[in-house]
């Protein structure tokens, strides 16, 4: 306990509330409130409606939602595979090799996402591989961006892994492939789940690289939120944003349920 | 390890992921650098006022946001960790959730809070009876600054809370039983312990602020142009790829340079 006096504690709490509520809680509440209203010209929104949600779950908006979900799912799965493979291969290398591999795979985090988008656009608008104008260019860019995060979290988990288990298995005559499949990967399962949730959430909210790349028939939800607010439909935009947040939260919740199940194994 | 049974050396296993990364990321990046070397491209971009303005705006916004995040994140984390209150756990959970939302939502929310017809101006006109409110900073750099501080502060709080949870509370008890006032304990006991976490969190936020695009795009302010925004407008709106690539190379140099620094700092801090 840092503060022993009653007034001191209350001062700390009030300071906390004064900073925390308007900065962090209010923005999210405001978006939810706006998504249910038609007008906001005074202190509070007015004209309660659920019409924006009715519009947000059909037509263009529904298509954008499925686009985002498919993109996030494919990107997360590929990123998880590539990131885990690289992390496992890196752990087997010496100190120097691991450092080089880690640096290579972390590079997409340091490079601005807009630049990743530009690079992918420049590279795949010319032969030998033409992807510009297809959905694959969006999925590719998302995969590049989230692989770095998958690699980072799996790599950290491998370092925390107790080597006793695999040594015991190997000393009992298990082949390396058997040790990997039956000992290491099951032990890594909780962190793989967490990494999957992280990748999914990041891909769902990705806007920077997507703005550089999206073709008209593959428009993810964040882009639709932007186009809606850009033409002044702020209330439709906030309903779409709430749908985006809710979907991300549901996915994270599902992943954390799997995680608690996985930790019982 | 029965090395005799292994038929391929370990580094071969590292080749497939590296090859994939090379095709989808390193080769595109190399093309950007190559394209930026078009004759006269660097000279044109460096000579343009819009580029220099964007560079200055990007750097000062990132530095100011990072400073704001560090101060705010430290204060909030100290209260959560050392002046516990009911619901503190829920607040930490909320911060985790906050991190998983895209950044542009903050700008969207600020439009409702401080926009020309938003909540703050609405209250002002209701109370004073004036036709318009005084809050119109949203389309200026200050609006971007507020949004970035709001969005990135949790990225500072997370490592701080992790560091505080491993701290010996006995130190605090001893200091306080020896008669140290709370502010002195914060300054002389908590702050030194928090420095590594502040360094890692701060440098991560600095890099992320330099790269931030969604917040600036949603602000829709013509007066606020950062380097990522300039890359977007050069490439997509003006189709001037050579210029976009030059700005991109400058942006990469800035961010990767700082990121290398960040890795160095976090490795030294043992994170």
From TrEMBL, chain A:
UniProt topology in membrane: Multi-pass membrane protein
Source domain of life: Bacteria
Subcellular location: Cell inner membrane; Cell membrane
Transport in keyword set: yes
Record keywords, A-Z: Cell inner membrane, Cell membrane, Membrane, Transmembrane, Transmembrane helix, Transport
Protein family according to the UniProt entry: Belongs to the binding-protein-dependent transport system permease family.
Record-given protein name: ABC transporter permease
Taxonomic source organism: Streptomyces flavochromogenes
């Amino acid at each position: 306990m840092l503060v022993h006096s009653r007034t001191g504690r209350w001062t700390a709490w009030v300071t906390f509330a004064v900073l925390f509520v308007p900065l962090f809680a209010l923005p999210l509440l405001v978006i939810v409130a706006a998504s249910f209203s038609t007008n906001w010209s005074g202190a509070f929104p007015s004209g309660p409606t659920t019409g924006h949600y009715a519009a947000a779950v059909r037509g263009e908006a529904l298509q954008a939602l499925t686009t985002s979900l498919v993109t996030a799912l494919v990107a997360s799965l590929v990123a998880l595979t590539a990131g885990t493979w690289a992390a496992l291969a890196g752990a087997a290398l010496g100190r120097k090799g691991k450092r080089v591999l880690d640096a290579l795979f972390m590079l997409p985090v340091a490079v601005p996402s807009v630049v990743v988008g530009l690079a992918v656009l420049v590279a795949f608008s010319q032969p030998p591989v033409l992807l510009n104008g297809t959905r694959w260019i969006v999925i590719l860019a998302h995969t590049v961006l989230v692989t770095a995060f998958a690699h980072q979290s799996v790599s950290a988990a491998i370092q925390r892994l107790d080597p006793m288990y695999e040594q015991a298995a190997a000393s009992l005559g298990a082949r390396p492939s058997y040790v990997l499949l039956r000992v290491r990967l099951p032990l890594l399962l909780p962190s793989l789940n967490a990494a999957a949730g992280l990748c999914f959430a990041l891909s769902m909210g990705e806007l920077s690289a997507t703005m550089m790349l999206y073709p008209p028939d593959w428009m993810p939800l964040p882009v639709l939120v932007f186009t809606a607010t850009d033409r002044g439909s702020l209330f439709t935009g906030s309903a779409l944003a709430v749908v985006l947040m809710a979907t991300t939260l549901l996915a994270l919740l599902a992943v954390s349920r799997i995680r608690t199940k996985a930790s019982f194994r | 390890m029965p090395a005799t049974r292994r038929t391929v050396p370990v580094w071969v296993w590292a080749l497939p992921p590296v090859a994939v990364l090379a095709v989808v990321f390193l080769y595109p990046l190399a093309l950007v650098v190559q394209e930026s070397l078009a004759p006269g491209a660097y000279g044109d971009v460096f000579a343009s006022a819009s580029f220099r303005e964007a560079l200055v705006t990007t750097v000062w916004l990132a530095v100011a946001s990072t400073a704001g995040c560090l101060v705010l994140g430290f204060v909030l984390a100290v209260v959560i960790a050392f002046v516990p209150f009911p619901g503190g756990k829920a607040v930490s959970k909320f911060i985790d959730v906050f991190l998983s939302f895209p950044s542009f939502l903050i700008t969207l929310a600020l439009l409702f809070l401080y926009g020309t017809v938003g909540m703050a101006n609405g209250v002002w006109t209701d109370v004073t009876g004036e036709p318009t409110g005084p809050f119109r900073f949203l389309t200026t750099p200050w609006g971007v600054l507020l949004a970035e501080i709001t969005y990135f502060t949790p990225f500072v709080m997370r490592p701080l809370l992790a560091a505080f949870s491993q701290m010996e509370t006995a130190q605090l008890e001893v200091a306080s039983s020896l008669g140290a006032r709370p502010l002195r304990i914060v300054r002389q006991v908590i702050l030194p312990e928090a420095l590594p976490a502040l360094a890692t969190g701060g440098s991560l936020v600095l890099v992320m602020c330099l790269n931030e695009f969604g917040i600036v795009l949603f602000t829709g302010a013509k007066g606020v142009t950062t380097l990522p925004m300039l890359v977007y407008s050069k490439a997509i709106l003006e189709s001037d790829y050579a210029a976009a690539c030059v700005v991109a190379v400058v942006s990469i140099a800035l961010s990767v340079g700082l990121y290398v620094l960040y890795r160095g700092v976090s490795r030294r801090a043992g994170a």
